[in-house]
């Protein structure tokens, strides 16, 4: 199979089999960000020319080789590659394996980092994933978000992109400002906007526009002001709303799911359990046990 593709500043020429496309951002309209989670077939080669920034996680490759700048990098274990702007890499493999790739176009890098692409200090590297386990978790979180329908829109993938760009920055990509914060009116505006649109997808750009700042500044200032990222804040508020609706005793769990902004009961249950330590049904049982009884007729 021969595939030629250009997306998000990345040109790919693949000669090999793709056994399955597990997740893809194609058709979602993410601005300057692309993601794929695929199972590659028994063997093949791929040529990658990256104009933006490229992050990839390979899981359990039997035999994988990268050729970059006259050097080869061989792996037979989970690994992570980061490609700087302008990098050209040839990859070959033998044996099927899973690969997750996040591509950030030049304009998206500049929007997220508040810096021009020419000032990026991200450098191409090939490392075992055990040395960057957080990256593995972040890329798999994007795949899981796609699987459940991306209820927050592009917010998670934008947050992951910002985190990875900062993590691999050599010092200039993400301006090192000391604790930028939101003003009280900005924080209030964001809180009101998020709560009013809790059941709708949001993007970092939408939030930044609402308070008249850049995406890069918003990412840093929101975390400083609220103590969590915008994505984490929205998930927390969705669980809070679900708890309030459960406690009211007027709706079933299936009715609460969309009202709290979740795509399905499974997503609500996983998020609820992760943030509260218990599933929604356990919270429902407790709410019923502690709910006051009606007035007696005695």
TrEMBL record:
Keywords carried by this UniProt record: DNA-binding, Transcription, Transcription regulation
Tell me yes or no: is Transcription among this UniProt entry's keywords: yes
Coiled coil regions in record: none
Pfam families linked to this entry: HTH_18 (PF12833)
Residue ranges constituting the HTH araC/xylS-type domain according to the UniProt record: 188-286
SMART domains in the record: HTH_ARAC (SM00342)
SUPFAM superfamilies from the entry? Homeodomain-like (SSF46689)
- GO terms for MF: DNA-binding transcription factor activity; sequence-specific DNA binding
At the top level of its lineage, which domain of life is listed?
A: Bacteria
**Name the UniProt record assigns to this protein:** HTH-type transcriptional activator RhaS
């Amino acid at each position: 199979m021969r595939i030629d593709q250009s997306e998000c500043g990345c040109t790919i020429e693949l000669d090999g089999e793709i056994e399955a496309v597990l997740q893809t951002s194609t058709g979602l309209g993410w601005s300057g960000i692309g993601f794929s989670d695929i199972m590659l077939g028994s063997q093949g080669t791929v040529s990658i020319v990256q104009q933006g920034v490229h992050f990839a996680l390979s899981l359990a490759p039997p035999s994988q080789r990268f050729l970059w700048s006259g050097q080869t990098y061989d792996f037979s274990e989970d690994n992570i590659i980061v490609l700087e702007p302008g990098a050209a890499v040839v990859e070959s493999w033998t044996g099927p394996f899973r690969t997750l790739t996040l591509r950030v176009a030049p304009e998206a890098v500049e929007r997220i980092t508040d810096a021009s692409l020419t000032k990026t200090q991200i450098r191409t590297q090939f490392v075992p994933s055990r040395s960057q386990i957080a990256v593995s978790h972040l890329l798999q979180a994007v795949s899981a978000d796609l699987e459940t329908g991306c209820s927050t829109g592009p917010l998670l993938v934008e947050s992951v992109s910002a985190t990875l760009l900062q993590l691999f920055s050599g010092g200039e990509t993400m301006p090192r400002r000391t604790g930028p914060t939101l003003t009280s009116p900005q924080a209030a505006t964001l809180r009101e906007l998020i709560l009013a649109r809790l059941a709708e997808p949001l993007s970092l750009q939408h939030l930044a526009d609402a308070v008249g700042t850049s995406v890069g500044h918003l990412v840093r200032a929101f975390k400083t002001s609220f103590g969590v990222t915008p994505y984490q804040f929205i998930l927390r508020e969705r669980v809070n709303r679900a708890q309030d609706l459960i406690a009211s005793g007027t709706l079933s769990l299936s009715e609460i799911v969309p009202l709290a902004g979740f795509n399905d009961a499974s997503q609500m249950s996983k998020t609820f359990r992760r943030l509260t330590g218990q599933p929604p049904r356990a919270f429902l049982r407790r709410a019923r046990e502690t709910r006051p009884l009606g007035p007696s007729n005695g």
